[in-house]
Amino acid sequence: MNISNHLINRESELEQLSKEELFRIDEFRRRVESFESAVKRYYVGAIAKHAISDDPEVKKATFEANTPELDHIQNLALKFRFFYAEKEPTKLESVIGLLRRRAKDEWARNYLDLVRKQYNEMMNRCDMSDSMGHPVSNREIINLWFNSDFFHSDVDKRKKLSVINQSISEQVSLFQLYTAITGVLTQLNSVYAVTHKISSNTNTICTPNHHFRRKSQAKA
Fold first, then answer.
1. Quick check: is 2 in a domain?
2. Which domain holds residue 87?
3. Which residues pair with 199 in a beta bridge?
4. Is there a domain that residue 43 lies in?
5. Using one digit for the tens of pLDDT, what is the confidence trace for 102-116?
6. Residue at 114 is within a domain
7. Cα(first)–Cα(last) distance of the chain, in Å?
8. N or C, which terminus of the chain has less Cβ within 10 Å?
């Protein structure tokens, strides 16, 4: 993978990683490479439009988007699931937590905190559904599609997704799902860059050459 130089200008030491932790890092990098390849293969510039109106029904009726075919979204979802599912060793938040615990300096820890904050902000966004008068977070959209349709058959979640799709339309729901999944690639690539030098012989992580102080630290 190509890594932007500005993401790896500074090096920090990690505490020694266990074999299990090294496996998780290796597996995370492999999954990011696979996911990025799939995103590029199925990429369409996420463009949506609808009539300007205060009436959500008018917006739904006039909504148009270049959402990929459902099987393409399902393939992306399958690859994204490794960064999202609670029990996966490559879950993004868990990998960030592992790196943060092992990082020896505040500089690296603060950067990892920033990436985690950016990820959570992306997961909490609800722009498209909110514009239709029924805000649903990206995290919830992903959870419902994954657990009621794509990978599991949770009846209660299927009913909840059906209610949401009736409120905002299935087309809007799928578009938000697609943009939610692909929108996290930036944070995945950032953590990939952090880990790209880690090996059984190298306990080094890389970050931008900028001290991302917490607000409380900056005011002190």
1. no
2. 7-219
3. 202
4. yes
5. 999 999 999 999 999
6. yes
7. 39
8. C
